[in-house]
Structure formats: C-alpha cells, structure tokens
Design goal:
- The protein has one domain (3-55).
- It starts with a helix and ends with a helix.
- It has helices spanning 3-25, 29-55.
- The protein has 56 residues and is an all-alpha fold.
- The longest helix has 27 residues, at 29-55.
Length: 56
C-alpha cells in the first residue's frame, strides 16, 4: 500500500467520522448514515490494500 493510499484512506475515514458526529449533533439521520458509509468505504479500501501488500 502506498503512502498516498494510506493518507487518502485515513482522510476518508476521518471525513466520515466528522460527518457522523455533525449528523448526530444536528439530528440529521441522512448525514449520520453518509458518514458511516464513508467510514465503511475507507475500511474496505484499507483491507483491500492490506491483501495486496500481503501478496507481495
């Protein structure tokens, strides 16, 4: 996994956490769901990159 990918995935996960937090604070369920989706997407990408690294 390249350093750029790691940074990008971490940024996406942080963005998702921020969206979820703001959504909870403003009682916006769709924003909470979007934040959780962003976090899940970042985790899937991290897992995929880890598999690639393990195969090298």
């Amino acid at each position: 996994m390249g350093i750029g990918d790691k940074i990008s995935n971490a940024a996406e996960e942080a963005k998702g956490k921020a969206k979820e937090t703001v959504g909870k604070a403003t009682d916006n369920d769709s924003q909470v769901a979007e934040g959780k989706a962003d976090q899940a997407s970042a985790k899937v990408k991290k897992a995929g990159e880890s598999v690639k690294d393990a195969l090298k």
